[in-house]
Design goal:
Number of strands: 7
Number of helices: 7
Strand content: 15-25%
Radius of gyration: 16 Å
């Protein structure tokens, strides 16, 4: 059984989709939610699905052991970022090579990097006059939004879009594709 840790900082809509997708999966499951914000909505999502939670604090995450012992104790095989706003420290990247994935709400390499998340990304897409946007699912490396791309899906940017309206279409793409791509990655690890 491939054990997945979902890292999230917010409401947890992608985390919810992942938990639903893997709830009765024959070879993989969400075994842990890692969160850096007490009170985040994802904590309630985890409770609803009976998934244990690991709350992380900044000092230990970046300058301590990066919670690597806790992840190993839970026998975590794959780290899946779902709206986790901290950069992943080098210790975790080294411990989980090509086993950490992220979803970005734009077509990388455009509109990525530090501070580019959520509404900031959608506002940048509109300000740039882009005619399309989408999602990028990619491996995580030492740089923000930089690792090898696993999958992209596109949607049009409409002439009367607001960041909120564009976000709705982007969320629909995320919820449709992220569980499937993570499932494919877990299947490769299971071989």
């Amino acid at each position: 059984m491939i054990r997945i840790a979902v890292f999230a900082s917010g409401a947890g809509s992608n985390a919810r989709r992942l938990m639903e997708h893997f709830s009765h999966h024959p070879t993989a499951r969400v075994a842990l939610v890692v969160c850096n914000k007490p009170g985040a909505g994802v904590l309630e999502v985890a409770a609803q699905h009976g998934v244990p939670v690991l709350l992380v604090e900044k000092e230990r995450f970046f300058r301590g052991d990066a919670y690597l012992p806790a992840l190993k104790e839970c026998h975590i095989d794959l780290l899946v970022l779902a709206g986790f706003l901290w950069k992943v420290p080098p210790a975790l990247i080294a411990a989980y090579p090509h086993r950490i994935v992220n979803i970005h709400p734009a077509l990388l390499p455009r509109h990525g990097g530090k501070g580019m998340y959520g509404a900031h990304v959608h506002a940048a897409v509109l300000a740039a006059g882009d005619v399309e946007s989408g999602i990028t699912i990619h491996y995580v490396d030492e740089q923000y939004d930089h690792g090898d791309t696993l999958f992209q899906a596109r949607c049009p940017v409409l002439h009367d879009d607001t960041p909120e309206r564009l976000a709705e279409r982007i969320h629909a793409l995320e919820h449709l594709h992220y569980p499937r791509v993570v499932d494919e990655l877990a299947a490769r690890l299971d071989r």
